[in-house]
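Agenda item 2: pyridoxal-5'-phosphate complex prediction
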Amino acid sequence: MPAPTERPDTVLIHADREDAHGGALAPSIHPSVTYAARDAGEFAEMATRPRHPRFYTRYGNPTHERAARLIARLEGGDGALMTASGMGAISAVLLGLLAAGDRAVAQTSHYMGTTQLFTELLPRFGVRVDLVDQADTAALVAALRRGAKLVMLETPSNPTMTLTDLRAVADAARAAGAISVADNTFACPLNQQPLALGIDVVVHSATKYLGGHHDLIAGAIVARDELLDRIWHSTIALGATLGAFDAWLLLRGMRTLSLRVARANQNAMAVARFLEGRPEVEAVHYPGLESHPQHALARAQMRGFGGVLAMRLRGDYARTARFVSRLRLFTQAVSLGGVESLVVHAAAMVAGTLDEPQMQAAGIVPNLVRLACGVEATEDLLADLEQAMR
Ligand SMILES: *Cc1c(COP(=O)(O)O)cnc(C)c1O
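Presented output:
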């Protein structure tokens, strides 16, 4: 029985109880790759119905389905597809919906893998790509009017915490006949629901907040059924299939999503305010701060401002590297959204991947630090930052 509520705190605990066998409260894992049909008629149905959860695991799997139903419910979509990673989800959406000769619009600032897809891979297959500053809504709308088939959005975006006006771009995309896709990894569905603002497809790196413990890699695609069926055809060909055990770990991680996200939001807000008051800090980028240039948009489209923030330390690359190295609780590691707080020196992270103009376009300067707050005690995180500054 699904929980008779839409409050995410309760949905996360009770919504996927349907297949609890023999009263088991914990979900069961279905490692089986293949599923028996009772007769020829059932086999024909299994082989032809898109997204059948009991045919062959690359096509669908009961443990995937359970995680997918929960994520779809949180995002407000008809359903979801699970993939082996966030990039698996983004690749499947783009390769499933775009063809040679199509025009696609994307932001100048995206997750690095997404930028690579738009600047390297898609052009090789004849897709023309327009990269636009996400904060410039008029430029995004103008690019859509030039005959775009799809627009890819990501808000807040990494690492400068810049926002995209989801409703304005979703409306423009619909008017232009283009499909809008939003990467909702940074906000997560508890802080922001792009589908409710008119976006067609939401993608996630479930590796981050949804999993929440830095112990699994997974991705999800949420949309209405008609689009999911189309995208599913490319996911089964691309083969980024999530393992059943990782799907189960994801279900376990999601049970505490609302607790973790509430604390991460709270920690990030406290850290942002603390840093704003420090003389060692040149600027703080966090949508929850009144000083964020898009704070009004953040209030309009987000319910919480997320656990990630960025700051520019006063000083050069070397001084920034020293500060990051002196942090003890904030661990120097990529990724975000888990229980541990992590820190990344942005310029060091992208040095091997982006060239100088790409770094500038992405807003990455030598003194930029990204902080991903976990769920530790707020006072301890502030004390860690303070001792590293001294
Ligand atoms: C991590 C991340 C991805 C890629 O996800 P993987 O699970 O590592 O493949 C995509 N988008 C954003 C915003 C991310 O943070």
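Discussion summary: Residues 96 and 230 are 7 Å apart (CA to CA).
Owner for follow-up: CH.
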